[in-house]
Amino acid sequence: MVETMVVVERGDKLGEGYRRRITEVYVRSFAQDFVAFSRDTGKLADAFEHMLLLDRFYVALVDGEPAGLASLTEGEQALFAPRWREIRRHLGPARGLLGYVVIRRWFMAASDGARPGLAEIGFVATEPAYQGRGVATALLRHLLALPGYREYVLEDIKDTNAPALGLYAKLGFTEYKRRKVRFARHAGFTGLVSMKLVQDPASQPAAGRSPGAV
Fold this sequence. Notes:
alpha+beta
């Protein structure tokens, strides 16, 4: 298998010129979660483009193109700064209001146990064209090598997402919480799994360019 060179950069370091492409990776990867707002990923990107706080997202680049992303926050840090008028402009009054409320309530609330020094990793995603080429592994290794953190959590992973759960376990994460979700079966899963990792500082991998495939 030919190795893929993956370079990981923080979104704000890439700059505003990458904002649209980062947003497109985000909405395509989580489109299933947004079907109540719109099934049109272009329209979703139009609505959400403004709200991503780029300094909270890390982007995996292959040949300069965004191939995947993941977020990292601690304590009360937010990932998004949604503006109701902007979302409504693209999704309409009813769906725009629904989208705004859901984002505020479910995507911006701090998780249980959130505190400074505890790194919460979320929204780990790989573009379909790059799956199986080590993109998610490169992202996570980069995050685990950032200075200032020893403890990490991954919250609310769908229990049917075997590839993600397997990757996280391979990197040393262990399950610490599992909860059932009402009506989850209608969305194709049965519950949500949360995982954690407490890392020995001496064992931290080197950050930076990460070649290889999962």
